[in-house]
């Protein structure tokens, strides 16, 4: 067969809405050469190509933002003048609602972990706990004093010592300025 010039025409469509997509770059790779065309406002593109056989294989590439890439091998023939339709699949984007849900779940999980860590956290060494008189049940928030853990509503005037060490959670509020020193003078 002699070399024949033929037109390869196609149209790019959205696979979901079937609407035409304009301004799309289409690349045709044939015999080691690449040709480029762009779709018009109706989604059509056209290549004017020289065929050196009755039928040849070529590769069509389509890339456009917001859609999945398209890459396919096609057969071109000088006797076939049909329009090649390419249906591009839109890329699904995360909705704002689902991202908000993830943020809320992460916040809840983070809070639960923080609370669990706080509940299981024991800042007192065995030496600090040993400072309390033996046999007495003392609140570990006050390692320099022995205050019963079930004592209610104590004030600085109810304890003999001033400027003593206070550790969280400070159930009696002796450390008002949160500097770790209770009943400061």
Automatic annotation (TrEMBL):
Domain of life: Bacteria
Keywords tagged on the record: Membrane, Transmembrane, Transmembrane helix
InterPro entries to which the protein is assigned, alphabetical: CarboxyPept-like_regulatory
Transmembrane segments: 102-121
Keyword Transmembrane helix: yes
Record-given protein name: Excalibur calcium-binding domain-containing protein
């Amino acid at each position: 067969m002699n070399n024949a010039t033929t037109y390869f025409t196609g149209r790019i469509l959205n696979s979901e809405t079937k609407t035409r997509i304009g301004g799309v770059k289409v690349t045709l790779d044939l015999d080691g050469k690449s040709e480029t065309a762009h779709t018009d406002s109706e989604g059509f593109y056209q290549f004017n190509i020289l065929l050196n056989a009755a039928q040849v294989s070529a590769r069509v590439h389509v890339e456009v933002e917001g859609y999945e890439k398209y890459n396919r091998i096609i057969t071109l023939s000088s006797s076939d003048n049909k329009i090649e339709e390419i249906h591009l699949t839109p890329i699904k984007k995360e909705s704002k609602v689902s991202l908000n849900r993830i943020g809320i779940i992460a916040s809840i999980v983070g809070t639960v972990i923080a609370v669990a860590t706080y509940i299981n956290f024991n800042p007192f060494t065995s030496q600090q706990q040993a400072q309390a008189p033996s046999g007495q049940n003392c609140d570990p928030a006050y390692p320099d004093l022995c205050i019963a853990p079930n004592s209610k509503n104590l004030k600085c005037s109810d304890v003999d010592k001033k400027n003593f060490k206070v550790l969280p959670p400070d159930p009696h509020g002796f450390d008002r300025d949160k500097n770790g020193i209770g009943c400061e003078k």
